[in-house]
Write a structure and sequence with these properties.
CATH topology of the largest domain: TIM Barrel
Radius of gyration: 33 Å
CATH class of the largest domain: Alpha Beta
Oligomer: single chain
Largest sheet: 8 strands, mixed, barrel
Number of domains: 4
Helix content: 40-55%
CATH superfamily of the largest domain: EAL domain
Number of helices: 28
CATH architecture of the largest domain: Alpha-Beta Barrel
Strand content: 15-25%
Length: about 725
């Protein structure tokens, strides 16, 4: 499995639910024809299902197809067919528990219905597998349950994409077709190879197995049975299995056993048998009736050492409620505890700079560090429970009688005074802490407090305050409404691009435009101030930016003006812009010199290396850069020089009252003078009157933007 970058399709193609074309129907038919032909030629089922995956993923560029199967004993899911995913990555998708937080496939199996996750980084359904999505850049994942002829869930067929997108009608039919074909192949394998499978299973199984005929006479046993009981087949062939009974179970026990076998076709339970030498064996026996004319046997029984069964159950229980790396309880266990009682103090913490440690010293080193941290958390602070939540995040439960402040102080002091020594490397670490005490939504409140602590910096803490931290009902409703609006705007194509002219104060002409985003819902035009924050929190900003790019390029391709598009830090974090813009500039035939990319002042100041490199690459392509709302934050002037900025757009708060406010006038004058020395042109935003424009011209500012010259409109 490897990271890839987006950009094989337009934003419209990502979301538009267009009718299925004849060519797409032909593609589905070709898959059916190819797979059925391979089955008719009795090709190996691994080759058949690998071919199915490759044909499906070929119809969705920048994706991989996979088949996960459900283990009948444990109920856990594991990856079984995925030709485009490296074998080294398969262990990330082994023994996954189906459930509401278990990813697309875990939900498809758990809910027995298709799951279409557009954003794995934000969707709650991927909560327990977020680390997998982030590690391999799985942006969206669509999964269809695979069912046998009786409707029993066998597993799932999935298409995982390296970009955020929703499935079209064609993709849904493709998924359904692939899942049905997989069901047929798996069923055919079971039918055609039944005798071989039974024979191999019998001889290689770790459990003892015997087959009997219709008169319940032994006709076959496996090697494990011979080893357990000391009987060779010749010793007991033709005899009734009752010779194995120790005689401790009463007659009515066996009468009830055979009654269930006749009525239900199977029975299982604990029995006490004896070996050839008379040694007592406590075992779990399962008896099944074989309803198949091709099989000479009538019954088969499996004998499992009860101690092994109990150990397997204990292991399964451990995996459900424990983190495999550290041995701590996991988030599932924590949630169960908090459902029963929330009268605890919960400390949610994470290790500062852990991703940097991983990158510098390697994952094995990072795992050892996490184990050491887990040991400290579980043993040093008298917690009632220690949990690993996700990656480098942990949680501790304390009695409500403890003082939250003193708990955090003790933890900070310990980690300050006690460095870790791993592979001869001495390392001090720090954590951020989010604390919540009693009440409803304890985990949610502690997580929110952790976020607030991170906003303050490293090695900080925040204790949740219900009065000040909890959003009001009105705020929650507003966010829910805005979030729903964003998703509906995507699905119903309500996002529209508007253009506002930027006046050249030397020529007096409008030769530049800023692209502005609006949602048109019926007759209402909705400003970004209503929905932008919800779009950011839901992870949709990059998808919205792509849509703006496509729509604005389409509108401007036959014009000559320069135009600017706003991007966000989220766009730079997704690392798609360079390739995406290059692709779109070529597609629409727009010279890169006509495009201006606007970034907020804070993006340039933060100076994340990868972000800065992307912006420099855009400059090298010929695209111009502008700093939007300049003056709203404390600028890093060295960064402006490093990026070779073309335009400074002076923050509107200094422009709107420049004709009346002397302080605003002096600030704008200083910015303008600074920019002229660096040969950077300035744009005054929010020019709304003749008086404001006179001050702008007086200061020699090159461009003006505002309602005085042009209102946002469509092109």
């Amino acid at each position: 499995m490897s990271r890839k970058h987006v950009d094989s399709s337009t934003a419209e193609e990502l979301f538009e639910d267009v009718p299925i074309t004849p060519k797409q129907y032909e593609n589905v038919l070709e898959i059916q024809h190819t797979i059925l032909s391979m089955m008719a030629q009795r090709e190996n089922h691994h080759n058949i299902l690998d071919r199915l995956c490759r044909m499906a993923e070929a119809l969705l560029p920048n994706s991989v197809a996979s088949i996960m199967l459900k283990e009948s004993k444990t109920g856990l899911l594991s990856l079984r067919y995925a030709p485009s995913i490296s074998k080294e990555s398969w262990h990330y998708l082994e023994n996954l528990k189906p459930g509401p937080n278990g990813g697309s496939c875990g939900n498809a199996v758990y809910k027995e219905e298709p799951q279409f996750v557009v954003n794995t980084f934000r969707d709650q359904r991927w909560c327990d597998l977020r680390h997998v999505a982030e590690a391999f850049n799985i942006c969206s994942c669509w999964s269809m349950p695979i069912k046998d002829a009786d409707g029993k869930i066998l597993g799932s067929f999935a298409l995982s994409s390296f970009e955020h997108r929703s499935p079209s009608k064609f993709h849904k039919i493709l998924l359904e077709t692939a899942a049905n074909i997989a069901s047929i192949v798996l069923g055919s394998v079971n039918r055609e190879n039944r005798l071989i499978v039974l024979q191999e299973a019998m001889q290689n199984a770790s459990e003892g197995i015997i087959f009997t005929d219709a008169e319940n006479r032994i006709i076959e046993v496996n090697r494990t049975f011979e080893k357990l009981y000391g009987y060779a087949l010749d010793d007991i062939k033709g005899k009734n299995p009752k010779i194995l009974s120790y005689g401790l179970q009463p007659k009515r026990f066996y009468e009830q056993m055979w009654k269930e076998i006749r009525e239900n076709g199977h029975w299982s339970g604990e029995v006490i048998n004896k070996t050839k030498t008379g040694e007592q064996l406590e075992q779990w026996m399962s008896i099944n009736v074989i309803e198949d004319d091709e099989m000479p046997a009538k019954y088969f029984a499996i004998f499992t050492d009860l101690r092994e069964l109990k150990q397997a159950k204990q292991l399964n229980d451990f995996l459900i409620y424990h983190d495999q790396l550290t041995g701590l309880f996991n988030k599932v266990k924590l949630e169960e505890i908090l459902q029963e009682c929330e009268r605890y103090i919960l400390v949610h913490c994470d290790v500062n700079n852990f991703s940097f440690i991983n990158m510098s010293y390697g994952f094995e080193f990072g795992d050892k560090l996490l184990k050491e941290v887990a040991e400290v958390l579980s043993s040093q602070f008298d917690a009632e429970g220690a949990f690993r939540i996700n990656s480098d995040e942990f949680a501790l439960l304390f009695s409500v009688e403890r003082d939250p402040y003193h708990i955090v102080m003790d933890m900070q002091r310990y980690f300050y005074d006690n460095p870790f020594i791993i592979e001869n490397v001495v390392m001090n670490i720090s954590l951020n802490y989010g604390v919540a005490a009693s009440g409803e939504n304890l985990l949610e409140n502690a997580a929110f407090a952790l976020k607030l602590s991170k906003d303050q910096g490293k090695n900080r803490y925040h204790i949740f305050d219900k009065e000040n931290d909890q959003p009001s009902k009105e705020e929650k409703n507003r966010f829910i409404k805005a979030n729903a609006l964003v998703y509906r705007a995507m699905e119903e194509h309500l996002f529209k691009t508007y253009f506002q002219g930027i006046r050249d104060n030397i020529t007096g002409k409008i030769e530049k435009y800023e692209v502005l985003l609006r949602i048109e819902d019926d007759a209402e035009v909705i400003s970004p101030s209503v929905f932008l924050e919800a779009a950011k929190l839901s992870g949709m900003l990059p998808e919205i930016t792509k849509r703006v790019i496509c729509k604005s390029f389409q509108a401007m391709q036959d014009r000559s003006e320069t135009f600017s598009i706003n991007i966000t830090e989220d766009d730079l974090t997704q690392n798609y812009l360079v390739a995406y813009l290059q692709n779109r500039l070529e597609k629409y035939g727009i010279p890169p010199q006509r495009l201006i990319i606007e970034i907020l002042e804070g993006v340039s100041v933060s100076g994340k290396k990868n972000h800065i490199n992307q912006l420099k690459t855009l400059k090298q392509m010929g695209i111009k850069l502008a700093i939007d709302d300049f003056g709203a934050e404390y600028s890093n002037f060295e960064r402006l020089l490093e990026l070779d900025i073309d335009f400074l757009k002076i923050d509107a708060k200094y422009i709107k009252n420049i004709d009346k406010d002397a302080k605003s006038y002096e600030i704008v004058k200083a910015i303008s003078a600074f920019a002229k020395k660096l040969e950077i042109e300035c744009v005054a935003e929010f020019v709304h009157s003749k008086e404001v424009q006179q001050k702008i011209e007086e200061l020699g500012i090159e461009f003006s933007q505002g309602f005085y010259f042009d209102k946002p409109h469509k092109i």
